[in-house]
Design goal:
Elements (H helix, E strand, L loop, with lengths): L2 E6 L1 E2 L2 E2 L5 H12 L3 E8 L4 H20 L7 E2 L2 E3 L22 H8 L6 E6 L8 H8 L3 E4 L12 E2 L16 H7 L4 E5 L7 H10 L5 E4 L12 E4 L2 E4 L16 H10 L5 H15 L4 H11 L1
Helix pairs in contact: 2-3
């Protein structure tokens, strides 16, 4: 099974917002054993200096991988910046106190000299005045995703983050991001197929309706996934086994992408060709990966 995960916060007890350089390499080794050949460390909100330092560290790890390619490590493709530019009305588990207005200035404040490794930015597009940040990102080859949003419009995003979750629900009364993303054949939609974030009937509806060339399977895996920890602190909250806080709010998944893919296969929601597209081929297209990068991922997948 060939897999690339573009939305993952960690695992094996490793938190991408906090971990060391060595722990990034440890995670990359362990996740490759599960068939995930490449991934985008996904960062939740934090203060700008901390995020900038985190992104610079990931860039350093990526440079090390480039200089000394290892056959036993999944490749880091770049950062998915999920926190910061979200709507406080759809914060989910994230700390709304860390949110900033989605502007070019704030993006540059966070990324500093390492903006070149940002692959995806999740934002609430309705808060992006004159759509300036969305245009800025797209012009630089960075994919803007609508997520943690109350928007009824897609504006200029190219994708949605964990579709259905942290956005207005489907309804027959009005249109919204969830419905428009489902119907727009040009929009890539992340989907968490763990049967917890979305029930199986809605998953079936999604996969029956959505253009198969624009589906992206993600795990949204948490640091607690496949660890011996009984709880972790994530986004300033205590998160327990199963990925929920004390009130039952889902913070993310406790499953990795290989398990999610197998879940969908076992329930006959997807077939193997569907998984190859949604878990691998579509990501290559969405992130516009160059031939050298694709070749290196293929080697790791073999």
């Amino acid at each position: 099974m060939k897999l690339i995960d573009t939305h993952i916060h960690g695992g094996f007890g490793i938190n991408f917002n906090l971990c060391s350089e060595t722990e990034f390499h440890t995670f990359a080794k362990n996740i490759l054993k599960r068939g995930v050949a490449a991934f985008c460390p996904t960062l939740v909100g934090d203060n700008p200096p901390s995020l900038r330092a985190r992104i610079e560290l990931i860039k350093k790890v990526m440079q090390t991988q480039k200089e000394t390619p290892l056959k036993d490590e999944a490749k880091i493709l770049g950062v998915h910046l999920e926190g910061t530019f979200l709507s406080p009305k759809k914060s989910g588990i994230q700390n709304a106190g860390m949110f900033l207005t989605p502007t070019v200035e704030n993006f540059e404040k966070i990324t500093g000299n390492a903006a070149d490794i940002i692959k995806i930015v999740t934002l609430a597009p309705e808060l992006d005045k004159n759509l300036a940040l969305q245009e800025y990102l797209e012009n630089r080859g960075i994919r803007a995703h609508a997520g943690h949003t109350t928007s009824d419009e897609l504006y200029k995003v190219s994708g949605t983050t964990h579709h259905f979750n942290a956005m207005e629900p489907l309804t027959h009364k009005k249109s919204n991001v969830a419905l428009k993303g489902l119907l727009d054949d040009n929009i890539y939609c992340e989907i968490i197929g763990d049967s917890l974030h979305i029930n199986d009937d809605m998953l079936k509806l999604f996969f029956k309706t959505k253009n198969k060339d624009r589906v992206i399977l993600v795990s949204d895996a948490l640091p607690i996934a496949h660890s011996s920890l009984k709880s972790i602190v994530f986004c300033g909250k205590n998160i327990f086994e199963g990925g929920k806080d004390k009130d039952g709010t889902l913070a993310g998944s406790s499953m990795f992408l290989d398990e999610i893919a197998q879940n969908l296969l076992n329930k006959n929601i997807l077939n193997e060709d569907d998984v190859l597209k949604a878990g691998y081929l579509n990501i290559i297209e969405h992130l516009r990966l160059d031939s050298d990068t694709v070749s290196s991922i293929e080697e790791l997948s073999s």
